[in-house]
Design goal:
With about 450 residues, this protein is α/β, with parallel strands linked by helices. The protein is about 40% helix and about 25% strand.
Length: about 450
């Protein structure tokens, strides 16, 4: 058996099952569910994998499922992932009755992962590969619906808000040596793929500002206005923006969850939510310190109290150059040798919990077309099912074969030369160390 012949067998199996793969993606599209709630999507994925004759482990992190192949081999293990969760976009024509919508294309990822599994399993490729493979449908990539996730944390059902973080904490990556997945992206200018992307990491912040209520008309001087405190917080942060380096791509987003109760009472409590993003871990920590100073200063200025609950959200994504090159070669081959549709590198201020995995092991994370309209908006739609579902399934399967062929020589070289930013233990310690509550209290006793 030659490697080209094995790849061809794999591609033929994906083509034979094209309708089944696309149908799985369509079905998950019609059942959009938020993170750690992906019950129907997990069942769709699990049933598909079981139809391939493999054992499936379900509810790996509240929801989600996986199968492990070639367990008897001694070589490196590759995890191939697809994300199950949706976002909320109630204005989209295809959103469900509570506003959930797959306008980030995670249903496409899962179908692509399943298509890759079809190619590898049905072609008999496992016999010729010198390593192991996990196909994983993972929950909770979108950092939303945090109140629900907090209830799961309070019940000790999860430790982390991100699904891949939770799986890492539970030990599912302990024997994984490298990982791969893709995201969908809307392209212009005849492009259809980005090979390498750098994304931001972020810190999630829940802030409670406490003042003192009083009658807003008769005795406002007796109160401490928590809402005014929140406006000072915003202004103080804005005053810091010139201190952020352009290359760090710092982004600070905030909302007010609760801004008072009635208009004729000085607000005594305001709650806010922040996301502090940056391109490196160091820049994240620096920006977060400045935001905390801004909040502290607002409480000091008005004689109020600020409680800040800090949690590391996701870490920056940096894919492995060698894995990127292998994926690119296979994608170009699928495009008939034309590399003009490929963008090699983008830098984006978005975030994904796959970034956390990339800090620990070599990863590949391309962005592939087939959708139109901006992600997370009402304009989003799937425009090319072949490109969205089938091409990435093929490219990932071909990349797996390249990595694990010839006793996994290429994969072993990549793993040996990879320099992780964290070991698993260092990563978990880092996450714990930076999950903190800060209290600044200037209320008169």
């Amino acid at each position: 058996m030659y490697i080209k012949e094995l790849k061809q067998r794999c591609l033929e199996e994906i083509d034979k099952n094209k309708d089944k793969i696309i149908e799985a993606g369509r079905k998950i599209y019609t059942t959009p569910e938020l993170g750690y709630k992906e019950v129907q999507s997990t069942k769709t994925t699990s049933d598909f994998l079981k139809s391939l004759g493999v054992d499936v482990t379900e509810n790996i992190a509240v929801t989600g499922c996986m199968t492990s192949l070639n367990k008897e081999k001694n070589g490196p293990k590759i995890a191939v992932m697809g994300e199950l969760d949706s976002v909320m976009c109630p204005e989209h024509k295809d959103s469900n009755k509570i506003g959930n919508m797959h306008c980030c294309g995670h249903n496409i990822q899962v179908a692509g992962m399943l298509g890759c599994a079809v190619g590898i399993i049905n072609s008999g490729a496992l016999e010729y590969l010198g390593g192991k493979i996990d196909f994983m449908a993972v929950p909770a990539e979108e950092c939303i619906d945090l109140e629900f996730r907090k209830t799961l944390q309070d019940k000790n059902e999860i430790k982390f808000i991100g699904g891949k973080q939770e799986l890492l904490n539970r030990g599912y990556f302990d024997d994984v040596d490298m990982s791969m997945m893709f995201h969908a992206l809307n392209f212009e200018d005849n492009k259809n793929c980005v090979i390498k992307s750098y994304t931001n990491g972020f810190i999630s912040k829940a802030v409670t500002l406490i003042g003192k209520s009083s009658h807003a008309g008769i005795s406002p001087h007796l109160g401490v206005n928590a809402y005014t405190m929140s406006t000072l917080v915003t202004n103080n942060i804005n005053a810091q923006r010139d201190t952020f380096k352009d290359e760090d791509k710092v982004r600070i987003s905030s909302i007010i969850n609760h801004g008072g109760d009635v208009v004729n009472v000085v607000p005594s409590k305001v709650t806010m939510e922040f996301m502090v993003r940056a391109a490196t871990v160091e820049a994240m920590m620096d920006a977060n310190e400045k935001v905390n100073r801004a909040i502290n200063a607002a409480a000091l200025a008005l004689g109020g109290k600020a409680i800040i609950e800090d949690t590391i959200g996701f870490l920056p994504l940096d894919s492995d150059n060698s894995m990127d090159a292998i994926f690119k070669r296979n994608f170009v081959e699928l495009m008939g040798g034309d590399d003009s549709t490929i963008t090699d590198v983008i830098i984006t201020a978005g975030s994904t919990d796959f970034g956390d995995i990339s800090q620990i092991m070599p990863c590949v994370h391309p962005w592939i077309g087939g959708v139109s309209g901006a992600l997370h908006t009402s304009d989003y739609e799937l425009s090319d099912e072949e490109l969205a579902y089938i091409v990435p399934a093929k490219a990932m399967a071909m990349t797996i074969i390249d990595l694990l062929w010839d006793d996994a020589k290429v994969a072993k070289d990549i793993v040996e030369n990879f320099k992780p930013q964290f070991t698993k233990e260092e990563y978990l310690s880092f996450m714990d160390e930076h999950t903190n509550t800060h209290t600044f209290d200037y209320m008169k006793k």
